[in-house]
Amino acid sequence: MPESLSRAVRWDTVVGALLIVLLLLSFGCVDGFGNALNLSFLLGNTLPIALIALPMTLLVVSGEIDLSVASTAGLSGAVMGRLWNEGMAIETIVPLCLLLGVCCGLVNGLLVTRLGLPSLAVTIGTLAAYRGIAQIVLGSDAVTDFPTQYLDFAAGRIGDTFLPQAFLPFLVLLAVAVVALHATPFGRSLFAIGASEEAARFAGIRVRRQKLVLFVLTGLMASLTGVFWALHYASARYDNATGLELSVVAAVLLGGIDFDGGRGTLGGAIAGVFLLGALQNVMSLLNVSAQSQIVVTGVLLVVSVLGPRVARQISVARAGRRAADPTPTP
Amino acid sequence: MTHPSDTGPAPVLALEDISKSFGAVRALRDVSLRLFPGEVHALAGENGAGKSTLIKTLAGVHRPDAGRVLLDGEPVVFHGPGDARDAGIAVIYQEPTLFPDLSIAENIFMGRQPRRAFGRIDHRATRAATEALMRRLGVDLDPDRPARGLSIADQQIVEIAKALSFEARVLVMDEPTAALTGSEVARLFGVVRTLRDQGAAVLFISHRLEEIFQICRRVTTLRDGGLISSEPLDGMTEDDLVRRMVGRDLDELYPKQDVTAGEVALSVKRLTREGVFTDISFEVRRGEIVGLAGLVGAGRTEVARAVFGIDRWDAGGVEVDGRALTNGAPSTAMAAGLALVPEDRRAQGLVMGMSIERNIGLTGLRTTVRAGLMDRGAERSRSLDWAVRLQVKYSRIADAVSTLSGGNQQKVVLAKWLATGPGVLIVDEPTRGIDVGTKAEVHRLLSQLAADGVAVLMISSDLPEILGMADRVLVMHEGRLTAEIPRAEATEETVMAAATGRAAA
C-alpha cells in the first residue's frame, strides 16, 4: 500500500520507533536502567520538559515560539518560596503563582500580537527579564521547607510502581492537549495559521486572538512546571529550571514539529521529549561525561531539524510517483 | 514587416518532435514549433496542456527526452538556463523578479556592469547603456529609478530591456499581460511590435484570446501535451481557436442570465481608509452581479479587503442585509453571510500545503463541529460535496492543493466560500491566470449564483469579463468611485474613460 508506505516515513513515526528501540536496548544492555528507582528518576526528570512541551508544541505549530518558559518556571518557584517564607498558606500561593504565569504569558503574547514583534526576539528578552525578577524576589536563598504532603506528592510514586504520582495528572493534560490540537476547530486553525497566516486571516480565523491564547496557556503551564519543580526537588531557588527551554525546544523539534509552523503531531513531540529524556538517563548510567552529553544533545538538535525535512522529501517523492500513476479521478 | 513563408527566412529557433515525461506523466509528445525572425507567434492551450514545459525546454530548464532543438538550423543542447540565454533566448515571466532596492540600470546590468579602473562600476556607462536600451524599446523610464515602486508593467519592460542587453533574438513572454491594465497592455504591445520589426522572434502566451488575435501572426495550439495545430491566425475566429484548445465547442464565455434584482444585500456607505480610498458608497442587490473596474492600484482590492474586515476602515460603514458589520473583523463578516474570494489565491485564498478537504473545511470551523470537536465526517462530506459540484479535477480529496492546476485551485477557493452559503459574494480577479475552459465554468457559476439570489461584487481587470458579466459597472480611479455605468451603456470606452479619470463623472 503506497499510503502506508508514505505514512511509514513520517518523522513522528520514526521518532516513536527510535524511542522503542532505545528503550529495548537500554533494558537489555544497560545495567541499572530497568530498575524501578531509575525509571522513576527518568520520568520525574522528564516531566517538567514534557509539561512545557505540551503548549510549546501548539505554539510552534502556529509558527511562534516561547523561550521564556524556563524563566517563567523559575520566577514562579521564586515567588512561591518568597511567599512561603512570608508565611502565606501554600493553598493560596499556588493559584497566585499560576496567575503570575498567565501574566508572563500575556506580556509575551501582547508584545507579539499587538506590536507585531517576532516571538523569538520578544521571548529572549523576557527570558532574561523574568529570571532577573526571580533573583530580585528571592535573592540567593533556597526555600526547602514546604509542607511534606506536597513534597511527597511531587516526588512520590504510585504504590509499588515506578510511575511518579504526578504522571497521572500529566496524562490527563496530554490527552487534553492532543484533543485540542488534533480534534478541535481551535487546533485546526493553529495548523492553518502556522502554514499561512495570511490565508488563515482571509478564512476568518482570529489569528491574533488564537496566538494570544497560546502564549497565555504556555505561561500557565510554565508556572505550573515551576511549582512542580520546586516541590519535586524540594528546593525553590531563583535559578530553578535554568536552560530548560532548550531541552523543550530540542525535544519538540526532534518530535517533528516544523520550526516554520504548520506541521507536526503532539504524539511525535512527546515521543521526542521521552527520547531525549531516556537518552540523557542512559548516558548518565554509562558514565558519559556531562560535556559529551551536551555534544550529543546538540547533534540531536541538528538531526531533528534535518530529519523531518528528509522524511518529508521522501514522502513527497513517493506521492509524486503515486500521482504520476494513471489512477482514475473520482 | 516581412512575411516568412516556406521560401522566406529560415526559422531562428525550431523544436523538432520534442517529448518530455515526468514520471508516468507525458507532458509533451512529439511537439514541433518553428519561430521565425520578425514574427510574433502565439502558444495556446489550456492549463496543463504543456505550455509551461515547452517554455522551460526552450529556456534550458528542462532537457527533452526525445527530439531536437535547432538554433539557426544547427542542433543545440542546453545544459541550463545560462546556455539558452547565451544562445539569445530570453523568457519574460508574468511576475518579474527584480532587486527592489537597486535602480533600473543596476538591475539590467547586474553582475556585468561596465567597469572603470580598479574594478569600480562605471555608473555613467551603465546609465547610458540603459538609456540606449529604453530608446530601442521606445519607452521613457528613468534608469536611476529604484525598481521598488515600479508597476508590474514597468518591471516587465525592465526585464525585456535586460533580455535585449543579452542580445536576445528569441523572446518568450509567458502571460505577460495577466496583471496589466488596458493601457499598459497597449504599451507592451508597442514594445513587442518594435522588437518584431527589429527582427526578433517572439513567442507569446496569453489566456486572453483577443490579445492573441491582436498581436500574433501564427498560433501553435497544444492539448494534453500533444500538438494540435500550427497555423496562421488569418481567417480564424476566437471560436475556432477555443475549439482547438479544449477539443470541443465551448458554450458562451459569458453566460450572463437576466435576473431581476431584489433587496439590497450589501450596502457600503461613505467608506474611507485614509490614503487608500475615499468616500466609497454603493449597494449590491440580491441577484445582481456588480462589476468593479479600474486600473491596478485604483483601490478596488483595498475596498474589498476593508469591507470583509481584513483591513480597518477610518470612516463610513458596511451593512449586510441591513446589519452593520464590525470594523476589521472577518469572522463577523462571515457570520453575516459575506464571502471574499481574494485576489492572490496562492497566498490568501489557500493554505498551499494543506489538503483540498482541509482547505474547504477552513471556512467550516464553526459549523462542522459536534460537542466542541471537529466532526470529520461532516467536514469530509461538505468538502467532497463542493469539490464535486464545482468539478474540481483531483485524484484524492486528501491531496495537497499545491498539486492542482491554477484553475482547479481557484475552484477550491470558490468551493471553500460557496460552502458557507454566502448571501454576498465578493470575487477579486476570479479568473486571472486560469484557462478559457475553466473561465467559462466560473462565469456560469457566478451567473447561476446571482440567479439563485446571491449578491455578487466582481472585481476584475479583464474588461471583456466585466462587460460580459456585470449588470452594473462601478469604476474606481485613484481611490474614488468615478462612475456607475448600467450594463446597456458599459463599453470599453466608457469604462476606460472613467478608470483613467477622463470621465465627466
Automatic annotation (TrEMBL), chain A:
Keyword annotations: Cell inner membrane, Cell membrane, Membrane, Transmembrane, Transmembrane helix, Transport
Keyword match Membrane: yes
Keyword Protein transport: no
Membrane-spanning residues: 14-34, 41-61, 96-117, 166-191, 212-235, 266-286
A Pfam family annotated for this UniProt entry: BPD_transp_2
CDD domains reported in the protein's UniProt record: TM_PBP1_transp_AraH_like
Alphabetized PROSITE patterns for the sequence: PROKAR_LIPOPROTEIN (PS51257)
Gene Ontology CC: plasma membrane
Primary localization: membrane
Membrane topology: Multi-pass membrane protein
Subcellular location: Cell membrane
Protein name: Autoinducer 2 import system permease protein LsrD
From TrEMBL, chain B:
Record keywords, A-Z: ATP-binding, Cell membrane, Membrane, Nucleotide-binding, Repeat, Sugar transport, Translocase, Transport
Ranges where the ABC transporter domain occurs: 13-249, 259-503
Subcellular location: Cell membrane
SUPFAM superfamilies (UniProt xref): P-loop containing nucleoside triphosphate hydrolases
GO cellular component: plasma membrane
GO molecular function: ATP binding
Topology relative to the membrane: Peripheral membrane protein
Protein name per Swiss-Prot or TrEMBL: Sugar ABC transporter ATP-binding protein
Organism: Streptomyces doudnae
